[in-house]
Amino acid sequence: MDTGDTAWVLASAALVLFMTPGLALFYGGMVRAKSVLNMMMMSFGALALISVLWVLYGYSMAFGDDIGGGLLGNPLEFFGLSALLGTSGLEGGFQPESLVFTVPSMAFVAFQAMFAILTVALISGAVADRARFGPWMVFAGVWATLVYFPVAHWVFAFDGAESETGGWIANDLLAIDFAGGTAVHINAGAAGLALALVLGKRRGFGRDPMRPHNLPLVMIGAGILWFGWFGFNAGSALAANGQAAEVFVTTLVATGAAALGWLLIEKLRDGHATSLGAASGVVAGLVAITPACSSVTPIGAILIGLVAGVVCALAVGLKYRLGYDDSLDVVGVHLVGGLWGTLAVGLFASASTTAGVDGLLYGGGLDQLWRQALGAVAVLVYSFVLTLVIGVVIAKTMRFRVAEEDEVTGIDSVVHAETGYDLDSLGGGGGSATLGNQAHAEARGMTVPTERSRA
Q1: Model pLDDT, residue 422
Q2: Quick check: helix, strand or coil at residue 99?
Q3: Per UniProt, what is the membrane topology (predicted)?
Q4: pTM for this entry
Q5: Same structural domain for residues 309 and 437?
Q6: Same domain, yes or no, for 438 and 399?
Q7: When you count CB atoms within 10 A of the terminal residue's CB, does the N or C end of the chain come out lower?
Q8: How far apart, in Å, are the Cα atoms of 195 and each of 45, 140, 261, 287, 327?
Q9: Alpha-carbon gap, residue 8 to 340, rounded angstroms
């Protein structure tokens, strides 16, 4: 065990955990005021649920010894994680019995748990304003079990790291996905598209203005995501070494370039560079550089980020042309950005980096490009098809979508008996806010003062 590597992985795990509340703020600011709490609750619900499932069997499914063709880890091998506990009690300190490279297995468990949590939370942006919380939680658990845990095995489980044999994309296909362009972003983006199709369009989609209700929240959330993403990418080196430093720089510069690219498109197309565009460009750049951060030079990272900002800024408009209601652009940013970043490895990879592979533009031919394309398509198709099936089953059995009148009233007050902003306390009336908070208070055995008692 190396204490420096262990400290870095644990710190990175905390950074990635912080990304989920950051995502909640980012998504929460983008929806209308009557949906902000429901939007944030879907992220926090994923954080709570997936943490438990990961310890019970998720880690074992992802990183247990392969039980068939590189498709799935043994779900019982590390069930409950008891097999990873213990220490040899060496003189002068404690040496863990189980290691992943130079860090304790439990540190690796914690780090990878945060990836699972965030991936599930990302999907929620595609169904904002119209998903009931209970069915969402059921979906989150089933989707993580049937989709994320197996795909994480495909992409992240390398032979000999935790178990003898790992997943097919990592070990047989040899596609490069350093921190989750396929397993996280293409996976979540394809799932978001499928779930948006299952739930259908929001009432008034394409007709009524559905502007973000709180842009400062959006920018704070994007800033937290950028901050946490250094743990997401550089932490994936699993060591405090030169690779982590290189990845840190490529992540920084690609993100900046993407924000500039998005703002440029906005200025040319609309005449204004917006705060929402800046925040969205940041996320697009982070998504695109995630699979490529260990395999491209800083100049290559700038190019990847710049293209991501431009392409994703254009892609978010596809939902109006094609007629699917991806509320917060999970498809336009995560699916499109993840596809671009994954394919970009096959174009911009340089053998001068720690990945040691040349892409097409560095004389490596098409070899790496086809590997990247096959991995991306496999994850996209698997995630989309299974999500469609899961979504339809839940919609038929549990009524996934809120009733139309409840959607109009506001999902926060109907589903959670709360509102994000109690305007009545400011003397502005706020009847619906008072109603929602009254119900919440009564549920807790409290009394909310009426207008008469205030007087």
Answers
A1: 83
A2: strand
A3: Multi-pass membrane protein
A4: 0.92
A5: no
A6: no
A7: C
A8: 17, 12, 29, 20, 11
A9: 29
